[in-house]
Amino acid sequence: MSRSAAAAALGKDLVGLEGLTREQILGILDTAEPFKEVSERRIKKVPVLRGKTIVNLFFEPSTRTRISFEFAEKRLSADTVNIGAVGSSVSKGETLVDTARNLEAMRIDMVVMRHWSPGAARFLASRIPSNVINAGDGAHEHPTQGLLDILTLRDHFGRLEGLKVCIVGDVLHSRVARSNIYGLVTLGAEVAVCGPRTLLPAGIEELDVRVFARVEEAIEWAEALNVLRLQLERMEGGFVPSLREYNRVFGITRERLEWAPREMLILHPGPMNRGVEIDSDVADGPHSVILRQVTNGVAVRMAVLYLLTGGAPDRAESAKSGGEGRS
Ligand code: CP
Questions:
Q1: C-beta neighbour count of 54 within 10 angstroms
Q2: What integer pLDDT is reported at residue 301 of this predicted model?
Q3: What is the DSSP letter of 14?
Q4: Residue 114 annotated in active site
Q5: Which of 206, 179, 211, 210 lies closest to 196 in space, CA to CA?
Q6: Active-site residue among 42, 92, 107, 197?
Q7: In what order do the strands lie in the sheet with 53-58?
């Protein structure tokens, strides 16, 4: 199957990177490439999703993902509506399915959803005919974040096969870690995790990752570090002795990186706890691609929106020019 056909066969929804094939993931990354240019134009708008109606349903806080999806949708000319738990009838006890059915009754085409419950996106996708994109479901997956991280790595290194990437920090509570692991392993990268044992899920080795107990070992091994936020809001205490202690033992600091045998690329999905998992001189330093990740997020989301509504990767260039692009 060609990459184009594979990506076109993404199906109705994107709920995770687990189970996607190499061709499907590369198909999304390749489709994001021509869409990068749209955000650099003076008039950032192409007619690809004209007439489509998309609901952004965010039950958890978000800055990057929600705004990035909204920009992606608007730059593709879709009509968008944003709904949060506060201010909607969810706060009066309406169920997720009832909310979605009412939206369906208004003839929407797609739902982008962030939800606190792992599996919520798959549950919704199985119950409504509209396309569903998972914008993060509890500690399960955050597929578009995984894709934009992988695109940023590919942009920098020009390869993914054999690339050594270590995910550092609170892996236990991280949907970003899972999506990165599924995507990177499928694409042939070597993946490791590093963090306190209390913040590494039991059986993580079964996902084909190596585990480093000490961050110094991870720095010696890796070509790129994806540094995760300590998700304090998902912890009830007892996972780390203190934030100061965490920074002392696992924090990514300039002093630690000076021991790296090679230049180390630094990623972080955001939001950052500066001075906890990452120091400011690393986050803002010359090897950080944290803001490039955010820029790539818009192109990746444009690609996913385009593909799920029937676009073909090899026609993205023509589609964004307003040509005969969509299948
Ligand atoms: N990376 C990420 O998901 O950030 P937000 O929570 O701000 O969307």
A1: 26
A2: 98
A3: B
A4: yes
A5: 211
A6: 92
A7: 79-84, 53-58, 110-115, 131-137
Rounded to whole angstroms, how far apart are CA atoms 248 and 245?
Answer: 5
Q: Which of 3, 114, 115, 140 is catalytic?
A: 114
Q: Which residues contact 254 (CB under 8 A, 6 or more apart)?
A: 279, 281, 282, 285
Ligand 1 atom index nearest CA of 114? 8
Task: Give me the residues paired with residue 224 across strands.
Answer: 165, 265
**Cβ(57)–Cβ(99) under 8 Å?**
yes
Range 85-101 burial, b when 16+ CB lie within 10 A, else e: beeeebeeeeebeebbe
pLDDT digits (tens, 9 = 90+) for 102-118: 999 999 999 999 999 99
How far is ligand 1, taken at its centre, from the CA of residue 294, in Å? 10
Q: If DSSP codes are grouped into helix, strand and coil, which group holds residue 55? A: strand
Percent of the chain with pLDDT over 70: 94
Task: Give the three-class secondary structure for 162.
Answer: coil
| Residue 64 CA, ligand 1 centroid: distance in Å | 5
Query: 237 CA to middle of ligand 1, Å?
Result: 23
What separation in Å is there between the alpha carbon of 121 and the centre of ligand 1? Answer: 17
Pocket of ligand 1 (CB under 6 A): 62-65, 136, 142, 145, 269-271
What pLDDT score does 289 carry? 98
Alpha carbon nearest to ligand 1 atom 5, residue: 62
Q: 283 near 266, Cβ under 8 Å? A: yes
